[in-house]
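Narrative progress, year one. The postdoctoral researcher (J.K.) led the effort to move from monomer predictions toward full complexes, under supervision of the PI. The following entry was the first complex the group processed end to end, covering 766 residues in total.
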Amino acid sequence: MPERHASAARTRAASADPEALPGLAPPGPRVSVLMPLPLAGAYDYLGPDDPPLRPGEVVRVPLGGRAVLGVVWDRESGPGSDAGAEPEAVPVERLKWVQGRCDTPPLSEVQRRFIDWVAGYTLAAPGAVLRMALSVPKALEPPRPVTGYRLAEGAEEARAGIKPTPARGKVVAVLADGPARPLAELARAAGVGVSVVKGLVKAGVLETVELAPPAAFEAPRPERAGPTLSPDQDAAAATLRATLKAPCFEVAVLDGVTGSGKTEVYLEAVAAALEGGRQVLVLLPEIALSAQWLERFTGRFGAAPAVWHSELTAAQRRATWRAVAFGVARVVVGARSALFLPFQELGLIVVDEEHDAAFKQEDGVIYHARDMAVVRARLGAIPIVLVSATPSLETVTNVKAGRYRRLHLPDRHGGAKLPAITLVDLRNDKPARIEGLGRSWLSPSLRRAIAETLAAGEQVLLFLNRRGYAPLTLCQACGHRLACPHCTAWLVEHRLAGRLQCHHCGFETRLPARCPACQAEGALAACGPGVERLAEEVAALYPQARTAVMASDTLGGPSAAAALLRAVAARELDLLIGTQVVAKGHHFPHLTLVGVIDADLGLYGGDLRAAERTYQLLHQVAGRAGRAARPGRVLIQTAEPEHPVMQALASGARDRFIEVETEAREGAGMPPFGRLVALILSSPDPAALERAARALARAAPHYDGVQVLGPAPAPLAVLRGRHRRRFLLKARREVAVQKLVRDWVAQVKLPGKLRLQIDIDPYSFL
Ligand code: ADP
Ligand code: ZN
């Protein structure tokens, strides 16, 4: 339905429907309503006079025969808004009426401008951005009371009067010494259908009660004392506190080595914002793994923050969204989407691990949460703190240019030393073959270090950024490689699950007994290591060590992840094998050895940030070692110890490395010194794709300072059955790329099955 309007003028009317006109005369004022749909802009409606609708109010309006939510909108702006002539207004007689308003507070002016800005910058439809802000439509209705079921008084007698079935018995057993429960939950806990429960109510065994609303959000108490800060920490905290006394837009970069107490410092800024009566948003890259963070926060402020991430239940999302909108939730810690929550009094944003690529959202509205957080802070005239031990080149460049203010923590807290980093040259220090296992991935020096560490009763972390058992399965008879039928990608063996998996589209299949190409039996061999395979080797070499694997696919939800991390902290495990999920932020006091299995993994593949990212990731992992009393060491296995990334890691010359990278980027006119926009065309039909790519190429802009590369087949030439072609637009920094790209793609009409994704400031080049 909405597509029909997509190319219409900026102000539109939903087609008139006489029945919807409530016969009120004279017609109320015209209001513009933006709907959370990928339409080109807001639509006009008639709103009541008394009280008139205010901008930001959430309303229900008719659209194409149904009622949809929308927000009263007052302006379309931002870097991408077109400055064309005002479109002709739709005559009042043809406008429909707004049907109703929601009880939630209006979206603030700042948030409305933020939504416009993000839409303009990312070239997404404003409604698509609004949809991220109204991500929980149910939250816009007042919460309905929930009915609970419990044993009735006189349940015993009532039971005597009915047939005692096992199902009935289970329901009674569940409720025997527990609280009243909602219907569906009770039925699930008892393993029976809801009709059994209802039958018991009829028979007088159970009765219904209204359940109290879910626990309210407790207010954190900033007046509680924090830890005694070191002089460096205190200086940084004092600067942040001063900024929050008279809040204005300011970007602070908290740049401190791993374990220097960055979290403690920015929690002081959080305290200051709370004291000033403002709400706070803390963005973390991997919120599902942040149990330690939550514990620390709760310890500091005596109450937990509200959390926001994709694994919340519908009820939690609803309660949290409302609590933010009504100002009940004072601190929210969340993944990137938390940026669009309906804060009314936001006074501080913190972006922890600001360099992390997980802040880039790669589908739907494609945006970088760190960059948009800075925009949100600017529009709201509030401070923002970017936190990292390895700030991104973008951020470092902004510091150098004087746009951001750097706060530095040069030392680990409590006198802990940074770990000693040694490179292991895999060309000389070759892993030996192991009887019964074949290939090994641990060099003799790393094996020695592991044995020493375990013997000393300390913990080891082995880092390998590859999920599953092996990244490739190859036929030893004919050389055939098992590939995904829907993507340009090899299938990854997950031996524990007994499956081959495509990490791009999720396709799964069993490992075949014969090679699908030559039918040879028993010839398929695993090539290369994944964490599961490494675990096999570790089990063979160190049978006494208590070992666990930690990867995003084996975690099994936030509580299981938290339990695993607690087990490490409590020394119930000796050796942890993990992918990048172990690299982030964890504090394990007894971990003294980190072994990096294959440091070269991320270095290649034509990614602009490959070196920077590898450096950040390995530095981060290394930072897990020796964070407390005992010193740590890090062994990095590489086949290229002379690579600048490895040299920088080993020598600790972070700033020199950044300088060299910066010079290279500047010389090449690459971000942050130039701008990039990726355009990805895709279609299930390669011929149609080819035609569209050519048409787009013909329309490509020719300007000074602008270069268009492509169309080239994407490295992921086929994804989910869609063929893909990429363009890369490279421009000087001062070029307004949004307008350029909008004008470019507007010239080409794309047939139905073709999709065009526009990625401003791309981080992925696949
Ligand atoms: P970072 O975020 O810089 O890696 P953290 O904030 O996690 O560092 O601090 C590392 C460890 O040191 C944590 O366990 C933290 O509680 C502790 N710590 C840091 N600063 C202090 C302090 N001033 N007093 C007590 N403990 C501190
Ligand atoms: Zn696939």
